Amino acid sequence: MNVLHTLLVIVQVLSALAMIGLVLVQHGKGADAGAAFGGTSASLFGASGGANFLSRSTAVLATVFLASTLGLAFIGYQRPQAAAPGSSVLERAAPPAPAAPAAPAAPPAGAADQASQIPGK
Questions:
Q1: Domain assignment of residue 59, yes or no
Q2: Which residue, of 24, 66, 68, 69, has the greatest Cβ tally within 10 A?
Q3: Which positions ≥6 away from 68 have C-beta within 8 Å?
Q4: Is the entire prediction scored with pTM above 0.90?
Q5: Which tens digits make up the pLDDT trace of 9-18?
């Protein structure tokens, strides 16, 4: 399951980066895609221009990205088989044993004698 998760993450990242690149290459309506390269769109991508090729490629990459996202969500939702249903990590943890209160320390034997020898008292 870990190999599938890693593979889906790699596919998702690569499709996201490619989709970002394709969207940045596309121009708005009325702008020629080939004008950036010194030509017309008809001479660069054929008679239909670059809009069909780039928009279809973006749609395919968006579909791949969506499928990998759904796959990652499904894998992330799966729970380990050893865990009891409805139990969380906090419910399975053993409560800490209560600590016995510490007895107050008795003052040293000569502490009362030393207090009486302090000047000003």
A1: yes
A2: 68
A3: 8, 9, 11, 12, 15
A4: no
A5: 999 999 999 9
